[in-house]
Amino acid sequence: MERAKLLGFGIDTYTFEQAVEAAKKKRGQVVTINPEMIEYGTKNPEFAAILNSAELVIPDGIGVQLGLKLISKEVKRIPGIEFAKYMLSEFKNENIAMIGAKPYVVKKAVENLKEEIPSLNFVYVHDGYFDDDARIIEETVEKRPELVLVALGSPKQEKFIYKLKSKLPNALMIGVGGSFDVWAGEVERAPKLFQKLGLEWLYRTVKEPKRFRRIFPVLPLFVIKVLKEKWS
User: Which of 75, 47, 52 is CA-nearest to residue 62?
Assistant: First the structure.
């Protein structure tokens, strides 16, 4: 399946099921892309190259889904947190690494996940409070995980995975943002209705007003840029 191009960035137009199969087959880096990442990528060539070199790029944000619709690409969004959770169940008999978040958060997330899926085999767990990427990469590689979930926030997690994947070519690596906080029970996901409508960002903004500055004016400007590119 060909990638759709949105403001110069390739996005896979798979269904959830197709994305799962592609991830298991391709391995490598999975990017759960949103408008903020695209906006940052337009200003940072290094980050843009990382996004476009990823083995799988799924439309996580409702803004990306809307942007694709504006260029006549009907694609359902694939929430990164749901995709990563499903991949945990798919890799439950393989070696798994989790890197990121606060120390107690990643620890609690692992505990909760193991209660839900007892057969999960976590071979490496580390919080996101480190400055020496090389050391964490070396420690991760030593454990030979098949699945690596990284919650360092964007763009740090994408840059970290990009450096790691060449040393673990057969592993699947996903940047999962704040997913560890949800799995640890520190942050509550939006109600099902908000999830279904793709309005989790709105719910979280209401709960955490400081997020407003991060989303606006990025989201409306993103839509304007897509329309401008379409009409040019």
Answer: 75
Which amino acid is residue 140, in one-letter code?
T
User: Could you tell me which residues are beta bridge partners of residue 56?
Assistant: 30
- 106: containing domain: 31-231
Within a domain: 26: no
Question: With contact defined as beta carbons under 8 Å apart, do 105 and 113 qualify?
Answer: no
Query: Taking the CB of residue 177, how many other CB atoms lie within 10 A of it?
Result: 22
pLDDT tens readout for residues 63-110? 999 999 999 999 999 999 999 999 999 999 999 999 999 999 999 999
Q: Is residue 212 part of a domain?
A: yes
Percent of the residues in the chain that have a pLDDT greater than 70, as a whole number: 94
For residue 2, being part of any structural domain is answered with no
Nearest to 127 by CA among 135, 115, 136: 136
CA–CA distance, 46 with 181 (Å, rounded to integer): 28
| Total number of domains in the chain | 1
Question: Closest by alpha carbon to 170, among 18, 24, 2, 4?
Answer: 24
CB burial of residue 148 (10 Å; 0-12, 13-18, 19+): buried
Helices and strands (DSSP H and E) totals, the chain: 13, 8
CATH code, domain carrying 105: 3.40.50.10700
